[in-house]
From TrEMBL:
It comes from the Bacteria. Residues 18-109 form the ABM domain. This is Protein in whiE locus. Residues 117-138 have a biased composition (Low complexity). Coiled coil: none annotated. It comes from Streptomyces amritsarensis. Residues 115-150 are annotated as: Disordered.
Length: 396
């Protein structure tokens, strides 16, 4: 029996195999068109590094409902593909024959049956439940003939889905955009009996905007609900003239492309499970990675925060790392001043982490910060400006 740890965690960095489930609802009469599109898409995906296999299934109850499952060596391999411009272009033909889609992503925890052996083998002795970075000694023995390993142990969740959007505005418009983002009326938090918007935090760094949301329940339902609210629609229209990337919200294709490119997924979250004591401050740090180094940088920060949350003396109560391509944002809930332990807040406390961070950052042109003063300046440059932080009424 594997016991869940008290900490709350989610992570794309445990290197376990990933199962992606895509539910599709086709337009009437679009079946043949869909099958042609799927064949082309399958040929593209099959050559992507990390892809193992996929399956196409049709509902036996409603022939308009289809299911595509794909298996990947690890979540980072899949995320590198799904966040790429190649993926955005490859799925465009689907929109002409698919009414609605829903994507779900799962780490493979156990396998049972004649081909996989006993399920109990998935949890090796000494496995640390909920830890995203298992040691070599805690590695799951079943590697399923080179297809990647199983998730070492289950993680404890808190029923909250975390997601972010990021986009840039035209230089010189930052003050106007900040005023618009701070002054809009909050949308209704309750989506349905199962879903509600729990918290929205907006930050800026230069001309980059990051909107981080926390949802209890169904993220897709919440995002669709928010997009339909008149307060949010008015805000989106108001900032349109200031966006660097043009979009037309009245055109479904243009809106879909914009929000697909703006998506900034949460690749790691960890929080102490005992509940926060005292007042917490929310901070966000922006890390522009060197080309091709975004995932490695996100993994470095995630490992730092895993250790920090386990330390009873650490001011970090919770951390979420968002990453897409070479954009990395780290959201922290801290006890006390954020600059009390600048190296820990920046994510470089201990060892040679500052040197590793400098190697991965595109903005580390001044070399490796080593002294307390240098690290403090580095932290100040990385910190994003909080524009607004809103919680639903019963969470305030």
């Amino acid at each position: 029996m594997t016991t869940l740890s008290e900490r709350i965690s989610q992570s794309a960095f445990d290197d376990s195999r990933l199962r992606v489930v895509l539910l599709l609802d086709l337009y009437d009469g679009a079946q043949n068109q869909f099958l042609e599109v799927y064949e082309d898409l399958h040929k593209q995906v099959s050559s992507v590094p990390g892809h193992i296999r996929d399956e196409l299934c049709q509902s036996i109850e409603n022939p308009s409902q289809w299911l595509i499952t794909s298996e990947w060596e690890s979540a980072p391999r899949f995320l590198a593909w799904v966040n790429s411009e190649e993926h955005v272009a490859s799925v465009q033909p689907l929109h002409g024959c698919v009414r609605d889609t829903r994507s779900l992503r799962f780490s493979v925890l156990r396998e049972t049956g004649q081909d996989h052996g006993p399920a109990a083998a998935a949890f090796p002795p000494g496995a640390s439940a909920g830890r995203a970075f298992p040691s070599a000694s805690a590695e799951a023995p079943d590697r399923s003939r080179g297809r990647g390993r199983l998730q070492v142990a289950p993680r404890r969740g808190d029923g909250v889905v975390r997601h972010a959007l990021t986009f840039t505005v035209k230089p010189g418009s930052e003050a106007v955009v900040a005023e618009l983002l701070s002054g809009y009326a909050s949308p209704q938090a309750r989506v349905d009996e199962h879903t509600r918007l729990r918290r929205t935090s907006l930050f800026m760094h230069g001309n980059r905007v990051v909107r981080a949301v926390e949802v209890e329940g169904d993220l897709l339902a919440a995002l669709r609900h928010v997009a339909l609210q008149p307060e949010v629609r008015a805000l989106e229209e108001a900032i349109n003239p200031y966006l660097e990337q043009d979009r037309d919200l009245s055109d479904p294709g243009s809106a879909r492309t914009f929000f697909t490119r703006a998506a900034l997924p949460a690749v790691h979250h960890v929080a102490a499970g005992g509940g926060a004591s005292g007042e917490l401050g929310r901070h966000a740090l922006f890390y522009p990675a060197k080309k091709g180094c975004g995932m490695e940088l996100a993994r470095l920060l995630a490992a730092q925060d895993e250790a920090a949350v386990d330390d009873a003396g650490s001011p970090i109560e919770a951390s979420t790392v968002f990453q897409r391509d070479d954009i990395v944002v780290r959201l922290l809930d801290l006890r006390g001043p954020h600059d009390a332990r600048p190296a820990l807040t920046l994510g470089v406390e201990g060892g040679h982490k500052a040197a590793v961070l400098a190697r991965l950052l595109d903005s580390a042109k001044d070399g490796v910060p080593t002294t307390h003063q240098e690290i403090s300046r580095f932290l100040e440059r990385s910190e994003m400006r909080l524009i607004t932080d809103r919680r639903s009424p019963d969470r305030a």
